[in-house]
Design goal:
With 250 residues, this protein is an alpha+beta fold. Helices cover 28% and strands 26% of the residues. The protein has a single domain (7-245), classed as Creatine Amidinohydrolase. The chain contains four helices and 15 strands. The model has no long low-confidence stretch (mean pLDDT 97).
């Protein structure tokens, strides 16, 4: 079911988004070589609760953690429980959902641990630009396919691939709502966007194949060929003035 949000509901989601965006800003300095992904998870959960909000991922279909922390070839839904510590050059994706007074915000951001490389920096730049190119297409009257087409054509021109098994989605009043928002597709195809829709746009971009395989835990997806995967995600609202980013960072 697709729910169209009122201006008041969008403002409430933006408050949740500000909490989430602030946490991602804090993680820029927090994430360092030698720490565990569980330390990241604990930091995020405490920050959410200290803000008077709820870490919405806990308990979702049995999931136990406040975050998904996916490292290197892990595409998404990485468990923060792992034996190894983070090291220089690791790429870690931190995805979490904030519920603040019933309003939802969802955002994933990618961080390079310690020293980066030109190759990793290029992957970061392309993935982030792809996110904003997709957002630019999220206007009243456009179609879902316009978002995916903008992302796919740019990413593939840069020599990378776009994950297809995992996509964006509507959000609010629950974490996952209709419509589905693929990060690939044909321009002018798919559902027409309407004022009041709230969506996540969250391209996952790989250095090699877009195809994934699942870990035995039934949650964590990783690249089939061992390539590195990167992701950036915002929650947005479709408004008469254009797309409004609800999780924008300073």
């Amino acid at each position: 079911m697709i729910t169209l949000k009122s201006p008041r509901e969008i403002e409430a989601m933006e408050e949740a988004g500000k909490i989430l965006a602030g946490i991602h800003v804090s993680l820029r300095d927090f994430i360092k070589p030698g720490m565990t992904t569980m330390a990241i998870n604990e930091f995020v959960e405490k920050a959410i609760r200290d803000a008077g909000a709820i870490p919405e991922q806990i308990g979702f279909e049995g999931y136990e953690y406040a975050t998904c922390t996916s490292v290197n070839d892990e595409i998404c839904h990485g468990f923060p429980v792992r034996n190894e510590v983070l090291k220089d050059g690791d790429m870690v994706k931190v995805d979490t959902v904030v519920n603040y007074k019933g309003a939802m915000a969802d955002s994933c951001w990618t961080y390079i641990v310690g020293e980066s490389t030109p190759e990793l920096d290029h992957l970061l730049e392309v993935t982030k630009k792809a996110l904003y190119l997709g957002i630019e297409q999220a206007t009243v009257g456009n179609r879902i396919g316009d978002i995916g087409h903008a992302i796919q054509t740019y990413v593939e021109a840069e020599g990378f691939s776009v994950v297809r098994e995992f996509i964006g989605h509507g959000i609010g009043p629950t974490m996952h709502e209709s419509p589905a928002v693929p990060h690939y597709g044909e321009a002018g195809k798919g559902l027409r966007l309407k004022e009041g829709m709230t969506l996540t746009i969250e391209p996952m971009v790989n250095t090699g194949t877009w195809r994934s395989k699942m870990d035995k835990n039934g949650w964590t997806a990783r690249t089939r060929d061992g390539g590195i995967s990167c992701q950036f995600e915002h929650t947005i609202a479709i408004t008469s003035d254009g797309p409004k980013i609800l999780t924008e960072q300073d």
